[in-house]
User: Fold this.
Amino acid sequence: MPDHQAPGSPSTAPVASAGVRCRRFQPGWAWLPLSLLLVGAACGCAGGSAASARKPGPGVSKTLPPQWLRTELYLAAVDADDWEAFVAERVTPRFPGGFTVFDARGQWQPPQGEIRRLATKVLVILHPPTPEAEQAIEAIRREYCSAFSQQSVLRATSPALVSF
Assistant:
């Protein structure tokens, strides 16, 4: 390496043939500041003071919201009138604060059967981690299976930071 070249800086030695010159990367300390800047930018930490990084934006709580859960129930689609009645009678009374439903397409394979493709309703409920919410969700699953002769209702629950 020439005396005027810092360790870790690119060399100009050719690494490809046919008249193409490429710069070869040599690991070392010279790339550390650039890599730290890129990591900071990717994290949203580059620039600004520490105080401004902690300052919440408009409409955001001044403290971290409490830990909530996001539960998704994947329900095989049924007749529209039956679905609306089920939501009105079984879901809304248990979660009057709100929930979201969207249509999806899915597939599954019974233990000893062929793959089945079906229309699906996804019910998304954001809720605090309480025994009452847990009981309400499990009741919805049981009642859906019973009311519509379903083998199961898939449930996926994950942590969620929620702010209203």
Observations:
- Residues 67-161 form a domain with the Alpha-Beta Plaits fold (CATH 3.30.70.120).
